[in-house]
Write a structure and sequence with these properties.
about 230 residues; mainly alpha; two-stranded antiparallel ribbon; 10 helices; Parkin coregulated like
Length: about 230
């Protein structure tokens, strides 16, 4: 005896839907395993990886490809590879951006900013390209010299000496803004010698007028000419 329940046969369309995957349904993505070299490869670093922290301006620019060089790591030391000749790169705003990167505390930003700043200042004609940027560079370097991280301070100090070697006397008008932080760090024994050498370099590149400027903030400074 029939139960009265009739099973309707599937139509061709229903059969097709049941057997074919949805056209817009992506297959499960397999997350690639990170390679050891990825940590040093600028293309694989995600500055937005820590959701609780907003990325710095330098990290954001770096992630978007706004820094025309990349880190190449070797067995002995790292180096930068420029996408184009540094001589052809506009200093404005790149030099200022690299100076801002000196305050970074994570790799590869620390290396790229430090090495990029140094290499850009080494190109022919760097002085005439850099001097107009001093009003923007000095506050950035001042922030690096005021940073609580010792390595950031040292990068800022090295960058200051490199800048002085390029612009010479032109830095004297801005020097007072940078000396206060040097005076404070001079109290720390581990930085005393390094800062003293840096001040002597500033005098060497800035001329005799630099001595009076330095002494106005650091009275104990002994001139290299005395």
């Amino acid at each position: 005896m029939s139960s009265g329940v009739q099973i309707k046969p599937k139509t061709a369309v229903q059969k097709s839907k049941a057997s074919s995957p949805l056209p817009c349904s992506p297959e499960p993505a397999t997350k690639p395993q990170p390679k050891p070299s990825d940590k040093l490869n600028p293309k694989t670093i995600d500055p937005f990886g820590t959701p609780s922290r907003t990325p710095s301006a330098f990290a954001a620019i770096y992630a978007k490809g706004g820094i025309p060089c990349r880190l190449v790591h070797g067995s002995v030391k790292h180096r930068l590879k420029w996408e184009c000749l540094p001589e052809t790169v506009p200093f404005d705003p790149l030099l200022v951006t690299l100076a801002e990167g000196l305050r970074e505390t994570k790799h590869p930003y620390t290396f790229v900013s430090k090495e990029g700043f140094k290499e850009l200042l080494m190109v022919e004609g760097a002085a005439e390209k850099t001097i107009p940027l001093l009003p923007r560079l000095v506050p950035v370097l001042k922030a690096a010299l005021a940073h609580s991280d010792d390595e950031v301070f040292e990068r800022g100090l090295d960058a200051l000496v490199q800048l002085s070697a390029v612009v010479g006397l032109s830095l004297n008008d801005h020097l007072k803004h940078l000396l206060t932080n040097l005076s404070r760090r001079l109290m720390d024994k581990k930085f005393k010698e390094k800062i003293t050498v840096a001040l002597q370099k500033l005098e060497q590149y800035g001329g005799k007028a630099t001595v009076a400027i330095i002494k106005s903030k650091i009275p104990t400074y002994c001139s290299i000419s005395s």
